[in-house]
């Protein structure tokens, strides 16, 4: 169990927490209310960066959002090695994708935000090569393989947009590999915070000034190949230099230009320049 899951609580508080957790688990998988329509969903905003979606394509997206579910934080929705699982479209909340090594250590591969597909590659390849864990309570639309393939066949432009999104995710993984192998700790952190900001801005959840972020320093450590102590030191350096502050679940950019220069951040790989297909 990771350190950020453990807390010291009084006995009475522990009983109350256990009762609340039990009810949360009973409700896992049930939507507590209508999610936002697909026409205004984060996925639609994201795909619109690649293609100007038609009414037929918006209707197809609406059908992909029919199976709406909720998942509690800290409980895997997809397990490494799992077969025959569905993909998901994240509508609200944050998820981390990770791999567990034979010695039990965890490497976070990426973080998923609203508008992202979860497990798309695993559905097409039949076996999940990593796990997905909600960081907070999330809402997601379950997408079955047959429904996905039918959508691809009926709306090829939408299929191209989803392929664009998957290709963009692959480009981000390449950047993460470069960061782990070649960037020092402060540049690695700066690049990560800027990339998250750009991704969130695309779906209307961030600005050039900053964004809300539920990640802990342990999440950052697992994702960036650093110790939690090193993460704390780097964040303090960025704060003291006036470039960025990460405090109380909020990332705020002070001197963004200086942060971009430190990270040598070029967002061209995120491909946010406007629709390619009209």
List the helices and strands and how they pair.
Elements: H1 11-27, H2 42-47, H3 55-64, E1 67-71, E2 87-92, E3 95-100, E4 106-112, E5 117-118, H4 120-125, E6 131-134, E7 138-143, H5 145-154, H6 156-182, H7 185-202, E8 206-207, E9 210-212, H8 217-224, H9 228-240, E10 244-247, E11 250-253, H10 256-263
Helix pairs in contact: 5-6, 7-9, 7-10, 8-9
List keywords for this structure.
278 residues, alpha+beta, Jelly Rolls, 4-stranded antiparallel beta sheet, 11 strands, disordered N terminus
Number of helices: 10
The string of secondary-structure elements, in order, is HHHEEEEEHEEHHHEEHHEEH
CATH superfamily: Jelly Rolls
Helical content class: 40-55%
Task: Briefly characterize the structure.
The chain has 278 residues and is an alpha+beta fold. It has helices spanning 11-27, 42-47, 55-64, 120-125, 145-154, 156-182, 185-202, 217-224, 228-240, 256-263, and strands spanning 67-71, 87-92, 95-100, 106-112, 117-118, 131-134, 138-143, 206-207, 210-212, 244-247, 250-253.
3D structure, described in words:
With 278 residues, this protein is of the alpha+beta class. The chain has a single domain (28-270), classed as Jelly Rolls (Sandwich). Helices cover 44% and strands 18% of the residues. The protein contains ten helices and eleven strands. The protein has helices at 11-27, 42-47, 55-64, 120-125, 145-154, 156-182, 185-202, 217-224, 228-240, 256-263; strands at 67-71, 87-92, 95-100, 106-112, 117-118, 131-134, 138-143, 206-207, 210-212, 244-247, 250-253. The strands form three sheets. A four-stranded antiparallel sheet has the order 1-7-2-5.
